Structure formats: C-alpha cells, structure tokens
TrEMBL record:
Catalytic reaction(s) noted: L-threonyl-[protein] + ATP = O-phospho-L-threonyl-[protein] + ADP + H(+); L-seryl-[protein] + ATP = O-phospho-L-seryl-[protein] + ADP + H(+)
Species the sequence originates in: Penicillium freii
Entry GO terms, CC: cytoplasm; nucleus
EC number annotated for this UniProt entry: 2.7.11.1
Span of domain RWD: 36-145
Domain Protein kinase: 212-529, 569-938
Pfam families: Pkinase, RWD
Keywords linked to the UniProt accession: ATP-binding, Coiled coil, Kinase, Nucleotide-binding, Serine/threonine-protein kinase, Transferase
Lineage: Eukaryota, Fungi, Dikarya, Ascomycota, Pezizomycotina
Matching InterPro entries: aa-tRNA-synth_II/BPL/LPL, CC_SR_Kinase, Kinase-like_dom_sf, Prot_kinase_dom, Protein_kinase_ATP_BS, RWD_dom, Ser/Thr_kinase_AS, UBQ-conjugating_enzyme/RWD
Ranges of Basic residues composition bias in the record: 1-11
Primary enzyme class: transferase
Annotated region described as Disordered, given as residue ranges: 1-24, 682-723
Protein name: non-specific serine/threonine protein kinase
Keyword flag Zinc-finger: no
Amino acid sequence: MSPKQRKKPSRQKNQASNSSVTSPIFTTNYREIHQTEVEALRSIYGDDFEEVENRRSAWQQSSDVTFKLHLRSSSNPDILLILLVELPATYPKTIPNLSPGNLDGFRDGARSRIQEILRNKPKSLLGSEMIYELAVSIQDVLEDVAQAQAQDKDLPSLEEERMEQEAAALQRADLEKQEELRKQKAAAVEEERALQEMLQDKMRQRNKARILRRKSRTGGADMSYVDELVENTPGAICFDPPLAVNDTDEQPLVFRAVHGKTLLQSKQCKKTFTVRPVVSENRCHVPLLVLKELCLSENNSEGLTFREQMRTSEDKLEGIKRLRHPNLVEFVGFKINRPFGNFDSPDNSWTVFTLLEYANKGSLSELLDIVGTVAVDMLRGWMIQLLEALEFYHRSGFVHGNIHCGRVFLFRTPSGETIVKLQSNVEEALPDAPCGKPSFAASKSPLWAPPELTQDSSSPSMKTDVWDLGIVLLQMGFGKDVLLRYTSANQLMVSMGLSPPLQDLLCEFFRPDPRKRPTAFQLQPSEFFRVDAPLKMRERASGSVSLQRRPRLDSFGPMPAFSRYHQDFDEAGQLGRGGFGQVVKARNKLDGRLYAIKKISQTSAAALKDTLSETMLLSRLNHSYVVRYYTAWLEEDFNQIEEEAMSSTEGDPFASQDHHGFSTGGLDFISSSGYPKIEFAASDSDDENEGTLSDPAHPETPERLNGTGDDSRSAEEELSRARSGSYARPILTTLYIQMEYCEKHTLRDLIKDDLCDDTERSWRLFRQILDGLSHIHSHGIIHRDLKPDNIFIDVANNPRIGDFGLATSGQFTTAVRSSAAADFGGDFTRSLGTTYYVAPEMKSVVLGHYNEKVDMFSLGVIFFEMCHPLPTGMERDQTLRQIREKNHTLPPTFQQSDKLLQGQIIESLLSHTPSERPTASDLLSSGKIPLQVEEETFRRAIVHLLSDPNSPDYKKILSAIFSQSPKKFEDIAWDIDSHAVPAANELLVQGLVKKKLTSIFRRHGAVESTRQMLFPRSQHYNGGAVRVLDASGNLLQLPYDLTLPNARAIPRQDRSLEKTFAFGTVYRDSPHGSEPRTHREVDFDIVSHNTLDLALKEAEVIKVLDEIIEEFPPLRSTPMCFLVNHSDLLQLIMEFCRITPTQIPKVKEVLSKLNVGKYTMQTIRSELRAPAIGVASTSLDDLARFDFRGDKTQAAEHHGRN
C-alpha cells in the first residue's frame, strides 16, 4: 500500500469544559501518546516503518521510543530518505531527536530544504504529535526532486556531478600551480633585472675608479688629449707636472703648456711675455698669464756647485709655488732648462721660465707715474692688504728682499673692487748672477737703503722687507720722487708736517735698529690704519678753524662726535642687497678683521621696531654652520643733521657736534659675550644723557672742543630742537648689524666643480646644511632666500648659511605680505637663479600662511643640484623648471642604486603640499642621512678594536665579516673581469716552454721546488701586492714575486740545496675590487753560503739566460741585450742626481719600466714629476743623461759630452 493510499488518523482533541466549575488536574500519560503515535505511523508506512531496539540502561526506568522511517517520493520510489526518530520521555512537549540518514546523496538545494524542515518545523508543532507532519513535508521535498529529474533527464547524476567537481578542483589546482609558476618566473625575471642593475652599477663603479686612478696619475686631466694639443700648437712651452689656474669665470683650468708669446718687456737676461694656456678650442674664458724668461750663466762658477745651487733654488721655487693668499700674485709654475753641452762650452746658460698671474690693471709703479699719488683712504686700504700679504709671506718662511712699487700689482675683481697684490721675488730664489737681480740703485735711492744693508756681507731680512714697504707707503702718499726730494724719513716728517698717526707709523717703519723694527703683523693694528687721519696737518690762519681738520683720535683725547660705524670701520666695498637693505664689507679698525655690515635704513618707527625684532631673533643664532651675527646698533643720518645744524648756527663749525644724539656708542642690541638678555641702553625720558658717552678722565669742556661754551651750548640746543621735532622732518635712522664675513667661495662653486661625482662629500654637506637649517628654524626664523650662492664654504670646507636678507620669523600671512611681495618682485628676483628655489606657496598670495617648509623646498632644489650634473646653463634652466612642476619626474640618474635614496629625499622636499615636506629635524632623525661624524667615531672605534687581537669584540667583528652571505652580482662581476682561459694551442706552447726551461735548469744542476702561495704580509712591498685577511684576523699576502717565498724558505731548507728553480704565478692587486691580475713567472736561484765564488755564480746565471735565448728560435733571431744592474752603481746615480732618500725607492720602481714598451724617458719624466713622487726637474735632467746605450767607447764619449 502506497503512502498516498494510507489514511490519516483522526486527531482527537480534548475539549475544555465550558462550565464555570474548575476542572480537575489531569496527569499527562506520555507513554500512551508515544504508543498511539507509533502505531499510527506503523499502519501508515507499513514496511517503510522500522522499529529500532533501544536498550535500557541500568539507571533508566523507561527507554525512549526509537524507530526509522523510509520516506520515498510517490513518483520515484528510488528517491529515498531514511529518517531516524527518537522520542524523548516528555515528547511531544519536548522536541524529538531527528537524524536524516543519507542526506549527502541529495543536491545542495534539496539538502538545504530538508535541513531547514528538521531545524525549524518541530518548534512550531511543539505540544502536539508532529512526526507525521514532518514526514509529509520531507516527502514533498523528495517529490520535487523526482519531478526535477523527470523534467530534465540530461542533468548529471550525483556521481557525475561529483566527478565534475573533482575535475574542476583539479583544474583550479592546475591554474593555481600555473599562477605560482608565473609568479616564480616573474620573481626570477625581477631578480635577474635587479642583478643586472647591481652588476651595471658595480661595473660603472669600477670604470669610475679606473678613470679616477688615471686622473690621479696625470694630475686630473686627460694627458693623452693634452699631449696631442701641445704637439699641434707651434711655439708651445711645456711644463711638468700639469698646472692649474682659475679661468676668468672662476672655474678650474688644468693645462700643461702655454703659447702665444707677446713681448711686454725686455731687459738683459730677462724677458716678459703674455701667454695663454694651451686648451681645447671650445674652452672659453681662458685667462691671460705672464711668462718670464730668465737666463742664468754658470760660467763664473764651478758647474757642479752651480748645479747644487740650482737644485736648492728649485726647492725654493716649489715652496713659493705653494703660497696662496688673496693679496699675493699667484705663482702658477716654473720650468728649468739646463744646458746639455760640455762644462767648458761657450754656451753654458740656464733658462728659467716662470708663469705668473696677470694683473689686469698694471703695477702700482705705472699708476703712480700717471696720477702721482693715491687718495688717503685708498692708501690705507691698500697698505693693510700689503701688510697682510707680507705677514703671510714671512710666516711661510720666505724673505722677499726686493719690495718696491714695481712689485705691487693692481687687480680689478669681478665685483668692481680694486685690490693690490704683492709679487713674490722669484729672482731671489735663483743663484746669484750678474743678470739675475736688478741693482739697488735701479729702484730706490741709496740714501733710503735699510741701515742693516749698508754693512758688509749683509743680506735682506724680514725687517728689511718692512723698511721697503714703508717706502712704498711714502711713494703712494707723496709720489715716487719723494725719495729724491728727501734724504730720510725724519726729514720728510719735519718738513711736511705729517699727521700724528702717520708720524707714529713712519717711526715704526723706519726704525734704524732692525731688532726694534716691528714685523708686518705688529704694524697692522697701527692707529693710522684704524682712524680716518689725513696724511698732513692742514695749516690754519690765526683766529680761524679749518673745517676739514679732524682731531687726532688717541687715548688721551676726548671721544669724537662721529658715527660709530665710520669711527670703527673702513668700508671696503658692497657685497649685495636684500630685503633689509645693503650689505658692505668693512674692516674693523681695532682688530683688523673683515666683517659684513648690514645697513638697514628706516624712517618709520614701526618699521624700525619690526626690523629690530627680527634682528634680535637673528642675533640668537650661534651655530657652526650658520654665519654668525655679532652685534647691532642704531645711528641717525648725520649728513642731514649737520646740514641743518650748520644752517641754523650760521656757520659755526662745531655746532654740528651734538653730544646728546651721537651714536658712537649707539644702542648695542647684541652683547659680544653671548646673548643672555637683550637690553636697550637709552631711555626716552633721560634727556640729559641721551646717547652720550663721557670720558671720566677727560671731561668734555668747551675748551677741549675748540669752541666757546656759548657756541657749544647753542649748537647743542639747536640740535636738540631739531631732534625733538621742531622741524617737520623725519630723521633717517640706520640699523647696523655686524656679521661674520665669508669669502665668496660658495656651494655654487662646489656644484660647478662636479660635486655630484663625490657622493660622500655631498652627503656630508647636505647633513651639515640640514643641521644649520634646523638650528635656524628652531629659533622661529625662516630664511626665505636659501640657494647655493647664500651657502658659503669656509676654510675647513664646512658650509655656512648666510645672507639673511629676506629672513623673517614665524609664519607669514597674506595680510602682512605686501612688502615681502614687493621684495620678491624686486631685489628677491634680482639674483640670477633665485626663482628656481622659491617654494610654490610663496608665489601665490591666495595660499595664505607659509612657514619654514618654504626653506625645505629650496633645499630640495639645492640637493638636486648637488647630486645631478647640469653642465650647461640651458640644461640647468630646463631641468630645474621641470622638477619645480607639481607632476614631475626626476632624471634617470636617481633610478640608480647609488642615487635612489637621494631621489626619495628630493621628491619629498619638492612636494607642492607643505605639510608633506619633512622638516630639517625630521630628516636628521629619519636615519636616511649618513652620519658622517658618527661614522668617523665608529671607524676609530673599529680601528681600536682591531688593534687588540685579544679583545672579545675582535673575534666578533671577524665573525661578522666572514659570516656575510655571498652576493651573486659580485660573483658575476668577478668573472667578467677575469682573464679568459688560454686556448689549447697556447697551453701546449706553455707546456713545451716549461719542458725546455726545465731541461736547461737541470743541466746546471738545479732541482725544481715549490714556493709558498700564502704567507704573512711583507713590508718590502709598498703597493700592488694582494693582501687578504683570514678568519683568525691574520693579514696575509699572495706572492708578488717568487723571490720572497724562496727567501722565506732558505733558512728551513737543507744546505746541500744550492740551485733551485720554480714555476709559479704572481699576483698584482686590482684597485677596483675585481680579480687580481696574474702573471706566470719562473725563477732560477743560486744560494751562496760564502762570498768566495759570487762572480762565478753570477756568470752562471748569465750563461743560463744565454742558453734560454739560444733554445727558442724567436728569441735567437731578435736583437737581444743583457741589462745588468748594480745596486751600488744605481745608488750612486741617485745620489748624484740629488734624489732624496724618501724618493729613491719610488724612483727605482718607476725606472724599472724605462724603455719597456711605450715607456720612454719623457713618459717616465712626467710620472716622476707628478705630485705623488715630486722629483725636481734639475734632478731629472741629470738622470736623463744616464739614459744611453752603447759599448765602453760610446759610453766614454757620452760621458765626455755631458
């Protein structure tokens, strides 16, 4: 009977009584309910009902009813689900336990529906019999499954679906495997690309090392190209080694020869020409130089003695050549040509060529011939320069001996300033000769000769130079003929009525006793150089006073009523302009040092107040990489005050001396002993002492002021009325700021000198600039005009940030930015290249606030120039404009591994969003900047640790070194430079040669031995030996030759072993980190235990060489000669040529290449003259005489000629 034909049992429900009487409490009989429902299900499902025996446990009073229902679809009985039912004791008030038996055989949809029925429907039927309801619901699902199968018979079966799923899983696994292989392949390609990039970088570094090494050997220039230029230039005069000067554009220029001689002056034994360096045609701004040709004769002295004198003179010339001072004419170089004839030859003259800097404004002597005298201010400035030059000359250990106006030359600098330079006395360094030096009478009168030179056997000294410089001072002030008009300095001072400061100075210059005569350094603080004293005292008529007379400014006189600036400083020229005003170079009269003085003139009290606030901020800067600010003071415009005072007092000459308003002391806003606090020295309410400096020892009285008391008081009252505002005129007030003066050597010059090629130096400079900028920003100061021209380089090669002409403090808003915008459009953009460094937010008023990040943008452009070459102005303009764009791309240079980090820093600094730019302190603490100072400390610590092998850290360092994993690109780079394996025929030839050599050696009784391949480092080799380090820290060496290994083995070998030979390989170090160069070598050695038969053994060695030549036909048919060396003879040649003991080993090593291949004597000479060895040219001339070949007769003839 099918389930459709089964009848559903009627459900009997208890009807509740409607009576108002309370029903009695009935007890539910669950067992009876269970039996009733089970019987009903058995009658409905028949055979599809299966009772399951449930064993009763020892603790259970009654067991749960358990049975199975085999539920089938009515249309397809094969679709079957077995439902296990377990009725708990409290069923139907408790949900029965239902477990489908074969649910996995259904598809996902049917399985989900069945699970949903079993999970949720029992909850809704709780309290009544529910098994049949659940079975019917499940049968409905089974019927849907049957209908679906009947409608689409092409659907795969469950087994087929499972197989499809497995196939899909396999396919997915295969795809994943292929994807993994693709990723591995891409990673391999990327690794190969990175490997190739690292390999290219490595090879690029090696090529760069080769080029630098070649340049270091040739003085920094391509000498092959230079030699070709010299050969193609007629009349060129060559110099060894190559010379270096700055061209007219202040760029370094290396050359080896000069040409284009144009005669300037011709005297006996001396000619002067103008020449130009021999350089390529495309090189511009080639400077003009002065070439002097001096002829010396050795006829009046013994040849050997004269040669010794010339050798000494060459040392002096080398010393003068090294002198570098702003007020010394640069001695570029020299060349000595010696005669090559016999000693008794009639033409036995030497020629000395000296190359000097060209004076574009002639000599002081020529100027005085035209103008007679120079102005006192110019005289004062020039004399200070000459004193500084002479002091440096003397401090370097040289005596000039011939100072006169013809030795002082005038130079016009690019800034328009005229300076003087003293020319070194090159002739004094040469041996005495009739034509070597001009006579004393030719330049000055004998009456003016220094007293010490009138004695016999006296020679010029440093005090003599001071005397001669005093004469130059007199000639500048009173004309060249002053030496003819007066017989002595005393007569001149008595006759001309000189000013007291000048009299004091001349008394010092012309002290008769040279021991009491001051040095050039002691003369520099003289009063005449520190005050505006005239040369002569003006005469005045009785009862009148000269307006031009200035009282003597000494310690006993009253404090003068003049500007503090004009009293303490001598202005030497203008340095530039900025937002504050102008900056001048001035020399302090008290300490003699140069300072940069910034002048800020204001007529508005508010504007002056703002300026003072910013000045006080700048005064706080005290950093090693920032130009220092020393002091500041205020002054009023005395020209306007004096003009009004003169008109109001009707010509009273002393009414202009207002002792209530003079700024001799001024308002000193910055203490010179640090800046603990800032105080104003004057009060507006203190009318009696306003700005007055009184001298308690010398109170100012009307008599001391050379005027009556009434006149003085009248003048004071007049000026007081003018100052208090009785005249409707604003008084121009000037703020003076005294700063450290830096020479015009800036970061721009280093950039032009290819700073980008020196990565370590550029990192060091960048870190130092960051350090200084961080200090500036920490004080709330914004530079606003940061560029390479404003970063000066001091003598220690450290940067100094300066020129705060546009600096401001804190944030700068658009509301107060109008004046700054005017600066930006005017002075701010006047300097070429400034606009390249301006941050984008500074060019747009609408951006509102800006802060110190504008300096970081400028620093990004500066760092770009420090790292990337920009050879031409057009390329620089295009590149800098491109990187300033918001969407820019850095050049490919910054994709290389050695510039990748620089590129990242530059990108962050050039961001157009200020908040994205790092601050200076952020960059310093980021760890991206190499720590140069810390690295040096670390380097010293490592050296200290490695010097103590017993230290525990010693082994740790070695372990860390030897535990490094090998780098693949290093391995490949090593093989690239490795030598190729010889071909088979070459190996056969090598074997044949070895066999024949072995036969020859054995005929002489020699036995073959082996040589050590690794041994402790030897001190016998200066360079070129391959040194290695083992894991224990021992410094070892590969064989440089086979001689040293044999010498080390001799003490350990048997005495009977006298003759040995060995074949081996010797090694030469590769300077760029590649495989050492190898050479095959064979040694034949004879060990002697006594000196009885040394000649016989040496003859046997020569016989072995002769047999080798005879054994090989190519050698037999080639002209051969034996080069027999003799150490004693070679040492005598070195001593004869006056080669110093420290130079001899290097000279011998270089001479070993002479006449081998392309190494001629000229090539050897250039290498020996290079700074690395520095052999004197006279010594090389003598050494060249021994470069000859011939028999004894020819040698004797050669010796006779030389």
